[in-house]
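WARN no homologs supplied; continuing
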Amino acid sequence: MTATRVLVLNSGSSSVKYQLLDMRDGERLALGLVERIGEGTSRLKHTDVTTGAVRESAAQVADHEAALKAVAEQLATDGLGLDSPELAAIGHRVVHGGQAFTAPTVVDAVVLAEIERLVPLAPLHNPANVVGIRTAMALRPDLPQVAVFDTAFHTTMPEAAARYAIEAATADAYRIRRYGFHGTSHAYVSRATARLLGKAPEDVNVIVLHLGNGASASAVRGGRCVDTSMGLTPLEGLVMGTRSGDLDPAVIFHLMRVGEMSTDEIDTLLNKKSGLIGLCGDNDMREIRRRIDEGDEQAELAFDIYIHRLKKYIGAYCAVLGRVDAVAFTAGVGENAGAVREAAVAGLEPLGLAVDGALNAVRSDEPRLISPVSSRVAVAVVPTDEELEIATQTYALVGNSNA
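OK structure emitted
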């Protein structure tokens, strides 16, 4: 029997998201979420996509090992267990791969040690990713475990884009450079945009705008990332739900000296109390738009700051790419907030960008163009699918060996 299924695991600090896909056609067979791991009451939600059956339960899930065992039990109930000979591999989302990992990688002891060595660059994410991998390896030691890195897609950036203008020896000693994140989304959306245009990825230049609670932009030339907005960490770049994005570094020194704030307090401020929530108290774009409609000036200013930063990156990446074939909006805000798309493109007609109001107002789960037919640059809405991207990369790496 040919093994064609891939289980995708996204292990967070207190959660595990999962999807099981059949790579013959990319069909989802099951998906679910275990959250509040290690807390008093955990929650598991499992969906058998084939039948539509949904099961939910609340019980204490002590750790990630218990969580993955619970996932295995749910899959087994649907006849999709981890012991199935049809399971080709388990693909793991790993947030930070540094410069070492430029492609999906089969995990062994050496790879796992290197992922752990990168923990200082992603202290909130990589430890949980490692725990998920270790647990899955213990459950199925005979099965390939593949790490797919958020940063890998951005490793094609030239040094001129990836390097910060600080003392080179210090940067090298502490691995300080722009790594970028949301790479699986940017990879998937840039290729899907090319398909939407009826072209090969290597023939298309795309600006991808991944706009969710976390937000990032990338400039993709011929299928390869040449610049991205996030940097050493996911804090740099666009205004986000709770993160500040670009900031004069001297603000930190000012807060330490004048505000007498500690490093941890500033870290919390910039990552959890800034962005939209810091500007107006809300990080849900739907609520912000509702408040604007009611005349709320604070919400309107937050929206204007968000759009101003977004528009600057679109313009900058037009300059970086030289020729732009498409701008693609994706993720929760990008896919659903027509007002954001319209405002981001407004005034950029000299760059060949425009949005058709009627097309922009259409709600759909399908990739679609929202620019006028006459536009020089296509503007698209392309729903992202990071799990499918992880599964695709995983299966491409190990699928042939399981035939």
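Residues 297-321 form the longest helix (25 residues).
OK
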